[in-house]
Write a sequence for this structure.
C-alpha cells in the first residue's frame, strides 16, 4: 500500500484567505484615522513612501482592524481553479487583494481572461474583478510599474461611477459596497518617465509614509526580530544614519524591513557587525565606497 | 751645495752685509735662537747655505731673510741632515723664483710640524711643480705653500699630491679658478670623511668634463657634505663621480639637491639609501638624483624596508621603459603613487575622502563636506593651522596625512576618531548655541550675568546710550563670549568642556568606536605638557583638559587650589551626560571660568603640588555651592581682573588636544549665520550683517590668532572679513588687494597640483613617453559663463527659419513609444491568448489556422545624456574667409605667447570684418541643438573650454546637465567668445566626470573644435605636439571605458592627420564647409542616439 500523499502547503481561494492574527503595526502619525475616514467615505487612497517602511503592513493591519479576513495574491503564480463561490462564507469580512505590479502587468491580468480547458474556453476572473465582486480592498503595490492600459480600469473605478468594465465579456461590474482601491508608489527611484499622471493621481488622497522615528523604529525592530532593546536601538540608529546618505550615492536608505532582518540575524547568534554587513550594508548597495562608508558606520555603532 | 772650505762665522757675517740690512739682522737674531747644542760646523753650514741662497739672484736675499727667520723653529723638528735637505730644497726653489722660496720658508715652521721629514723634498717639489714661470703660477704656488699647513691637517701626503695634480690640471684652464679651489679646499677637506681621494678624483674628473663647474662643485661640496652622514660622504662623492662619468651635467646642482634630500633623512639611513643609489647607477645614472630626491619625500611615508620595495619596483620599470622609470622615481607617475600608497602605513586624506565623506554625512545627516585642513587655511577666513582638524560649520577639515602609528589600520582609526569628533560638533549642535535657550543640567545664569555686566558697563561709561549696548553682538556665541573679561581663557574653557561633552556623547551613541576613541584619548593625554611646570591658572585649565581626556587619577593640582580643582571637576562631571547640550557647556564654562579666573596665574613651587583623584562616577544631583553665586557676581563685575596681583604671568592658552583640533565656535556660528542669510530671503532675524560688525567681531574674538599671520593686523582682519563674506557666498566687489592674479603660472616640470579653491578639479594627464599618468597634473576651473543678450538666441533661430522647423520635426519623430508590442509573430516571448484562441476556433471550424500567435515587446526607452564641449580657444576667432581661409594656420608661431600676440593682431583685423568667425557658427550650432533637444527632452549640457597652462584649464558652463533651459542659458550662449589655448585632455576628463554622474543609458560626448589641441607645455614642437594628441586620445579612451560615446567634429581641414591618432577607433568628422556645422551636428547627434 502506498502511503497517501501529504499536502505540505495550504491553498486558498484569493478572496478567502484569512489572517488569523492581528498584524503588528505601530502608528507613527494619524494614518489610521485618515484611512478609516477615507474608507468610510469610499475615497481611494495612494500610499507614498520608500520601500520597506510599512505600507503593505499598514494595509494588512487596516484590513484586519476593520475586522475582516485577508486575502492576497501574488501575480503570475497562476490563479487556482475556481470551485464554487466564496461569497456565502462570511460576508462580514473585508477581503484584501494585494497585487504586486510589474512592467508587464496588463489590464487583462487584472480583470480576467479566457483559459483553455479541454476543448472549451473558460473565463477566469482576475484579482481586481474578484475584489470588486466581493467588495474588498484591492491594493495595487508599486502601481507606476504597471502598464499604462491599467489606468483604463482604474479611472472608472475611482470616481463616482465605481464600475469595472469587463470588455471581453461585454460586462460592466458595479463595485460591491466594501470595495476600495489603494495604490502605492515610491516617488523616489522611478525616473520621471514613470511618474503617475495627474489625471490618475488626482483621483486619490495621498498618505505619505516614511521610516518611523528612531524610538518607534527601535520598538518595531525589537518586536519583529526578537532582539533586545539596546540592539534594536542601535539598529534604528544605523538605519537613520544610512538614510542620511540617500541622494548621496545611495538610491534608497536602509528599510525598516532590512533592519528587522539584521535584528533577526543577531537574535540567531550572528555577531552584530556581521549581521549588519549582510542584512544592511550589502543589501542596500553594490558601490564599494559606499559599502566602506557604511562599514565604518556599523563599526562605530556596534562593538 | 755648501762651499768646500767653510768660512768662519765672522766671514759669513761680512759676506751677508753685502745684502740689505734685514739679512744680517735676521741672521743675528736666528743665531741667538739656534739650539745651544748645535755644532759649530753645522752653524757654519747653515750660515753658508743662507749666503748661497742670497747669492742666487737679485731678489733672493728676501728668501734668505725668511730662511734665517724660520730656521730656529724648523731645526727643532728634524735631524740636521734633513734640515740641510730642507735648505737645499729651498735653495733650488730660489733658483726658480725667490718669491716662491720665501713662501716655502715662511710656511715651513707650520708645515714641518705636520710633515714627515722624508716628505720634505716631495713637498717642495709639489710647490715647484705648480710654478710655470709666470707670475700667475707663482702666485698659485706661493698660495699652495701658504695653505699647505692647513691642508696637511686634513690630507695625507699622497692625497696632497693628488690635490696638487688636480690644481695643476685646473691651472691649465684657469689659474684664478685653481687658486680659488685651493682656498676652498682648505675649508672642505676637513668636512670630508676618511678618504679624500674620492673627492679629489671627482674634482679632477670634472676638470675634464666641465672645468667651469669645478668651483661651484667646491662650493656645493662645502654646503652639501655636512648634510650627509660623516661615514657616508665618501660614497656620496663616489656616486657623484660616477654620475660625471655617466655623462651627467650640473653635478654641483645635483649634489646640492641631493644633499638637501639627505638632510631630511635620518643620518643612520644614509648608508642604505646610498646602497640603493649605487646599485641604481648601474641601471640608469639619470635616475639616481631623482631617486635620492624622491627618497626624502618617500621616507616621510615609508619605512626603510618599504622604501626598498618601492625602489625595486622602480628598477624593474626602469628596465622595461627608461622614461617610465624616470617618471616613477620623480614620483610623477600614477604607478609610483599607487605603489607608495600600497606600501605606506600612513593614511592619506585623498584616498579615503570618498568613504569618510559619506561616513560624515551619514552621521551628521546634512550636507557635510570633507576637505583637508590646508584648504581651509588657504581660504583665509581665520583658520591658520594646516595641521589641525576642524570644522567651519559645513565642512569637516582633517589633516592631509595621518602617519602616527605603524599600521594603516591604526592610522585609519585615528582618522575616523578625528572625523567623528568633528562631525559631532555638527551632529550634537556645538554651533547651534542659543543664548536664551535654557540648559538641561544647570541653573541658568547667563542672562543674569549679562544684565549685571551691562549695568556695570553702563555705570562706568554713562555716555554710552542703552541702544548701543542692546545689540553689540551678531551671533549668540558672540553675545555669550561678551560676558567674559578674558575671552581667551573663556574660549579655552568652553572648548575643553564642549569637547569633553562631545567625546562622551560620541562614545555613548557609538559604542563601536569606544575602543579606538579611548586609545586616542590616552595617546593624547600622554603627549600633554607637564602640569607642574605651569603657573596656577594655566595648571587648572590643563587640569580640566586632563579630566576631559578621561584621566581621573593623580592629576596634579597646586596645593592651595585643590578645593577649586575639585569644584571644577564636579562641574565638568555634569557635562558627561547624554542629555547635555551646548547650553550646558556654556553654563559649565561660566562656573569654571568664575573659579579659574579668580586664581592668580602665579608660579607654584615644586613642592606645592598635590595629586588629586576625582570620582569618575557621580550620583547626586549637582547644585551650585554657595560661594558660586558670589564668584559669578565678582566675575560679572569684572572684579576678577582687578583682584589679580601684579606679579602674575600673562595667561597662555594651553596646547590644543591634537585629535580635537581647532574649535572656533564664534566664527563658525557667524559663518553659518551668514550662509543662512545668503540662502533664503532674510527672515525676521534682523538686518544683514555689515562689514563693520564683522570686523568688530573678528577684532574681539579670541579665536583669531592674528600673530600667526604675517603682515599688518588691520589688513589681515579686513581680509578675513572680506573672505568670510565671500565664503558665505555673498557677492562682493572684487578687492584687487587680496585676490590673486588670474594666472598663477606653474612650471611645466613642477609637481602635482592641488585643487584648493571651490569649483576647481584636478586631473591626471597622460604622458605617452613614460606610458603612465602624471598624477594630478591639470587644474580645471569650472566657471559659469557670463550672461549676455538673450536676443541672440531668438535671432539665430529666426535666421535659420526653415531648417529649424525641419530639425524639430525630425527630432520629434525620434521620441520612441515606450513599449511597442509586436503581435502575430511566429516566434516571440509568449503566446498571445487571443490569437491562439482564434487559431483554435479556426481549427475547430476546419479553416487553416495561422501559426503566428506569438508576440514580442520592443522596449525602446530614450535615456540620453549628452555633453557638448566647445573649443573656445583663441583660434576660433578666425574669420571664415570663404575659400580663402589659409590652408595651414600652422605657420603661426609655435611659442604660445607669440601665438597669442599673433592671434590678437589677427583678431584686431577681424574686429573690423563683417563676416562670421568660427565661434559664431559654433554658437549658432548650439542654438539649434538646444532648440532641437528641448523638443525631445534629452538631458544635455553645453560647456566651453579654453585656458592657459596646466593650472588654468578654464571650463565654462553654458548649460549644466541637470540645469533646465532658461533665459539665462540663452544669455550665456551670447557670451561665448574666443579665449586662450586648447588643452583638450582635462576638459574632456571633466566632461566625462560630469556625464558619468548622469543617470542615462546612452551617454554622448561631443567635442567641437577648430584645430589640434594646443597649450603651453602641451603642444610645442617635436614630441610635444604628439604629447597633446596622445593625451587627448587617452582622455577620449577613458570616456569610452566609462561607456560614454565620444565624437569629435572639427572644422580644421587638415584635421585628418592627427584626428586619426587622436580618435583611434572613435568617431570623428572633418567638416569641409564650416557652415555645415549646425546641420551636421544635429544629424550626427540623431545618428548617435538612435
Amino acid at each position: 500500500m502506498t502511503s497517501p500523499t501529504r499536502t505540505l502547503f495550504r491553498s486558498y481561494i484569493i478572496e478567502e484567505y484569512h489572517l488569523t492574527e492581528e498584524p503588528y503595526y505601530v502608528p507613527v502619525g494619524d494614518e489610521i484615522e485618515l484611512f478609516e475616514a477615507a474608507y468610510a467615505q469610499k475615497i481611494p487612497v495612494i500610499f507614498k513612501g520608500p520601500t520597506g517602511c510599512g505600507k503593505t503592513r499598514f494595509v494588512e493591519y487596516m484590513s484586519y482592524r476593520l475586522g475582516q479576513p485577508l486575502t492576497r495574491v501574488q501575480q503570475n503564480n497562476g490563479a487556482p481553479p475556481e470551485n464554487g463561490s466564496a461569497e456565502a462564507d462570511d460576508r462580514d469580512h473585508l477581503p484584501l487583494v494585494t497585487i504586486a505590479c510589474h512592467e508587464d502587468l496588463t489590464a487583462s491580468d487584472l480583470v480576467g481572461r479566457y483559459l483553455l480547458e479541454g476543448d472549451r474556453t473558460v473565463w477566469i476572473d482576475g484579482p481586481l474583478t474578484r475584489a470588486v465582486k466581493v467588495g474588498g480592498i484591492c491594493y495595487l503595490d508599486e502601481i507606476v510599474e504597471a502598464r499604462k492600459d491599467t489606468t483604463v480600469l482604474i479611472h472608472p473605478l475611482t470616481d463616482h461611477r465605481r464600475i469595472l468594465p469587463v470588455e471581453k465579456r461585454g460586462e460592466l461590474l458595479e463595485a460591491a459596497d466594501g470595495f476600495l482601491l489603494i495604490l502605492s508608489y515610491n516617488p523616489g527611484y522611478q525616473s520621471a518617465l514613470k511618474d503617475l499622471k495627474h489625471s490618475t493621481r488626482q483621483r486619490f488622497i495621498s498618505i505619505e509614509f516614511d521610516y518611523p522615528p528612531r524610538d518607534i523604529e527601535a520598538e518595531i525592530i525589537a518586536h519583529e526580530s526578537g532582539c533586545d532593546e539596546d540592539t534594536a536601538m542601535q539598529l534604528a540608529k544605523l538605519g537613520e544614519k544610512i538614510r542620511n546618505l540617500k541622494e548621496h550615492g545611495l538610491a534608497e536608505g536602509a528599510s525598516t524591513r532590512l533592519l528587522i532582518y539584521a535584528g533577526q540575524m543577531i537574535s540567531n547568534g550572528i555577531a552584530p557587525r556581521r549581521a549588519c554587513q549582510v542584512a544592511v550594508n550589502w543589501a542596500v548597495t553594490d558601490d564599494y565606497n559606499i559599502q566602506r562608508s557604511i562599514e565604518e558606520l556599523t563599526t562605530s555603532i556596534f562593538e | 751645495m755648501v762651499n768646500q772650505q767653510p768660512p768662519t762665522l765672522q766671514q759669513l757675517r761680512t759676506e751677508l752685509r753685502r745684502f740689505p740690512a734685514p739679512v744680517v739682522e735676521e741672521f743675528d737674531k736666528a743665531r741667538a735662537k739656534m739650539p745651544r747644542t748645535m755644532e759649530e760646523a753645522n752653524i757654519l753650514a747653515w750660515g753658508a747655505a743662507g749666503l748661497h741662497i742670497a747669492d742666487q739672484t737679485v731678489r733672493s736675499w728676501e728668501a734668505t731673510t725668511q730662511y734665517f727667520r724660520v730656521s730656529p723653529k724648523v731645526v727643532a723638528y728634524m735631524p740636521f741632515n734633513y734640515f740641510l735637505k730642507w735648505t737645499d730644497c729651498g735653495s733650488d726653489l730660489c733658483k726658480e723664483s725667490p718669491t716662491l722660496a720665501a713662501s716655502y720658508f715662511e710656511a715651513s715652521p707650520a708645515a714641518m710640524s705636520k710633515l714627515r721629514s722624508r716628505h720634505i723634498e716631495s713637498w717642495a717639489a709639489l710647490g715647484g711643480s705648480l710654478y710655470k714661470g709666470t707670475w700667475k703660477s707663482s702666485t698659485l704656488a706661493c698660495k699652495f705653500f701658504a695653505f699647505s699647513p692647513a691642508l696637511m691637517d686634513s690630507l695625507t701626503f699622497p692625497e696632497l699630491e693628488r690635490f696638487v695634480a688636480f690644481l695643476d690640471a685646473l691651472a691649465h684652464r684657469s689659474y684664478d679658478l685653481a687658486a680659488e679651489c685651493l682656498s676652498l679646499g682648505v675649508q672642505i677637506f676637513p668636512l670630508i670623511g676618511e678618504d679624500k681621494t674620492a673627492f679629489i678624483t671627482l674634482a679632477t674628473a670634472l676638470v675634464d668634463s666641465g672645468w667651469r663647474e669645478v668651483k661651484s662643485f667646491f662650493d656645493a661640496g662645502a654646503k652639501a657634505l655636512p648634510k650627509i652622514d660623516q661615514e657616508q660622504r665618501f660614497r656620496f662623492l663616489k656616486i657623484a663621480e660616477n654620475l660625471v662619468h655617466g655623462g651627467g651635467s650640473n653635478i654641483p646642482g645635483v649634489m646640492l639637491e641631493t644633499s638637501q634630500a639627505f638632510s631630511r633623512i635620518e643620518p643612520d639611513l644614509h648608508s642604505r639609501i646610498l646602497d640603493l643609489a649605487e646599485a641604481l647607477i648601474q641601471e640608469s645614472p639619470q635616475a639616481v638624483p631623482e631617486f635620492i630626491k624622491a627618497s626624502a619625500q618617500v621616507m616621510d611615508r615609508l619605512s626603510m624596508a618599504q622604501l626598498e620595495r618601492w625602489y625595486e619596483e622602480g628598477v624593474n620599470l626602469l628596465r622595461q621603459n627608461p622614461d617610465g622609470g624616470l617618471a616613477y622615481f620623480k614620483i610623477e607617475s600614477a604607478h609610483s603613487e599607487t605603489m607608495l600608497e600600497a606600501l605606506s602605513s600612513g593614511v592619506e586624506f585623498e584616498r579615503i575622502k570618498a568613504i569618510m565623506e559619506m561616513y560624515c554625512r551619514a552621521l551628521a545627516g546634512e550636507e557635510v563636506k570633507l576637505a583637508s585642513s590646508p584648504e581651509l587655511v588657504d581660504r583665509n577666513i581665520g583658520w591658520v593651522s594646516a595641521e589641525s582638524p576642524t570644522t567651519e560649520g559645513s565642512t569637516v577639515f582633517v589633516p592631509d596625512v595621518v602617519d602616527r602609528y605603524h599600521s594603516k589600520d591604526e592610522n585609519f582609526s585615528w582618522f575616523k576618531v578625528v572625523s567623528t569628533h568633528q562631525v559631532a560638533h555638527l551632529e550634537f549642535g556645538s554651533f547651534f548655541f542659543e543664548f536664551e535657550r535654557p540648559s538641561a543640567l544647570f541653573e541658568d545664569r547667563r542672562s543674569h550675568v549679562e544684565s549685571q555686566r551691562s549695568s556695570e558697563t553702563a555705570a562706568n561709561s554713562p555716555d554710552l546710550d542703552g541702544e548701543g549696548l542692546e545689540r553689540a553682538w551678531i551671533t549668540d556665541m558672540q553675545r555669550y563670549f561678551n560676558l567674559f573679561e578674558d575671552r581667551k581663557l573663556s574660549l579655552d574653557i568652553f572648548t575643553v568642556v564642549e569637547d569633553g561633552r562631545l567625546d562622551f556623547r560620541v562614545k555613548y551613541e557609538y559604542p563601536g568606536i569606544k575602543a579606538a576613541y579611548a586609545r586616542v584619548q590616552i595617546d593624547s593625554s600622554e603627549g600633554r605638557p607637564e602640569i607642574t611646570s605651569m603657573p596656577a591658572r594655566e595648571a587648572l585649565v590643563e587640569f580640566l583638559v586632563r579630566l576631559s581626556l578621561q584621566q581621573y587619577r593623580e592629576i596634579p593640582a597646586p596645593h592651595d587650589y585643590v578645593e577649586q580643582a575639585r569644584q571644577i571637576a564636579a562641574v565638568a562631571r555634569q557635562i558627561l551626560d547624554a542629555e547635555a547640550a551646548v547650553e550646558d557647556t556654556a553654563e559649565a564654562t561660566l562656573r569654571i571660568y568664575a573659579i579659574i579666573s579668580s586664581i592668580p596665574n602665579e608660579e607654584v613651587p615644586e613642592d606645592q603640588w598635590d595629586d588629586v583623584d576625582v570620582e569618575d562616577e557621580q550620583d547626586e544631583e549637582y547644585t551650585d555651592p554657595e560661594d558660586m553665586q558670589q564668584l559669578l557676581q565678582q566675575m560679572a563685575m569684572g572684579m576678577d581682573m582687578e583682584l589679580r596681583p601684579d606679579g602674575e604671568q600673562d595667561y597662555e592658552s594651553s596646547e590644543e588636544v591634537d585629535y580635537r583640533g581647532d574649535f572656533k565656535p564664534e566664527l563658525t556660528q557667524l559663518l553659518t549665520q551668514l550662509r543662512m542669510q545668503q540662502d533664503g530671503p532674510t527672515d525676521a532675524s534682523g538686518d544683514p550683517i555689515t562689514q563693520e560688525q564683522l570686523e568688530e567681531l573678528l577684532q574681539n574674538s579670541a579665536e583669531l590668532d592674528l600673530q600667526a599671520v604675517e603682515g599688518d593686523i588691520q589688513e589681515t582682519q579686513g581680509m578675513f572679513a572680506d573672505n568670510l563674506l565671500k565664503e558665505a557666498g555673498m557677492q562682493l566687489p572684487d578687492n584687487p588687494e587680496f585676490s590673486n592674479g588670474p594666472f598663477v603660472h606653474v612650471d611645466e616640470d613642477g609637481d602635482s597640483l592641488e585643487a584648493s579653491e571651490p569649483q576647481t578639479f584636478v586631473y591626471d594627464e597622460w604622458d605617452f613617453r613614460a606610458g603612465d599618468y602624471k598624477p594630478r597634473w591639470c587644474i580645471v576651473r569650472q566657471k559659469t559663463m557670463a550672461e549676455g543678450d538673450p536676443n541672440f538666441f531668438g535671432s539665430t533661430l529666426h535666421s535659420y527659419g526653415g531648417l529649424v522647423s525641419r530639425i524639430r520635426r525630425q527630432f520629434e519623430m525620434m521620441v520612441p513609444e515606450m513599449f511597442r508590442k509586436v503581435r502575430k509573430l511566429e516566434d516571440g516571448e509568449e503566446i498571445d491568448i487571443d490569437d491562439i484562441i482564434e487559431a483554435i476556433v479556426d481549427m475547430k471550424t476546419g479553416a487553416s489556422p495561422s501559426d503566428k500567435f506569438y508576440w514580442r515587446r520592443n522596449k525602446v526607452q530614450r535615456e540620453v545624456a549628452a555633453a557638448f564641449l566647445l573649443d573656445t580657444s583663441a583660434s576660433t576667432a578666425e574669420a571664415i574667409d570663404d575659400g580663402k581661409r589659409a590652408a595651414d594656420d600652422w605657420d603661426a608661431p609655435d611659442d604660445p605667447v607669440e601665438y597669442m600676440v599673433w592671434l590678437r593682431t589677427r583678431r584686431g583685423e577681424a574686429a573690423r570684418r563683417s563676416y562670421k568667425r568660427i565661434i559664431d557658427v559654433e554658437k549658432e550650432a548650439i542654438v539649434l541643438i538646444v532648440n532641437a533637444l528641448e523638443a525631445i527632452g534629452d538631458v544635455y549640457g553645453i560647456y566651453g573650454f579654453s585656458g592657459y597652462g596646466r593650472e588654468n584649464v578654464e571650463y565654462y558652463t553654458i548649460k549644466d546637465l541637470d540645469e533646465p533651459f532658461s533665459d539665462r542659458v540663452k544669455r550665456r550662449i551670447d557670451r561665448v567668445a574666443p579665449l586662450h589655448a586648447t588643452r583638450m585632455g582635462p576638459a574632456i576628463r571633466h566632461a566625462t566626470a560630469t556625464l558619468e554622474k548622469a543617470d542615462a543609458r546612452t551617454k554622448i560626448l561631443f567635442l567641437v573644435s577648430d584645430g589640434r589641441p594646443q597649450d603651453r607645455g602641451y603642444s610645442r614642437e617635436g614630441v610635444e605636439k604628439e604629447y597633446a594628441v596622445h593625451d587627448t586620445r587617452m582622455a577620449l579612451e577613458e570616456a569610452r571605458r566609462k561607456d560614454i560615446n565620444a565624437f569629435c567634429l572639427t572644422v580644421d581641414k587638415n584635421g585628418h592627420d592627427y584626428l586619426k591618432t587622436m580618435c583611434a577607433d572613435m568617431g570623428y568628422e572633418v567638416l569641409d564647409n564650416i557652415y555645415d556645422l549646425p546641420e551636421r551636428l544635429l544629424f550626427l547627434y540623431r545618428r548617435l542616439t538612435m
Observations:
- Residues 464-469, 731-748, 882-891, 909-913 of chain B have pLDDT under 50 and may be disordered.
- Chain B has 45 helices and 18 strands.
- Chain B touches chain A at residues 354-359, 361-366, 416, 420, 509-515, 818-819, 833, 836-837, 840, 844, 857, 861, 863, 999 (CB under 8 Å).
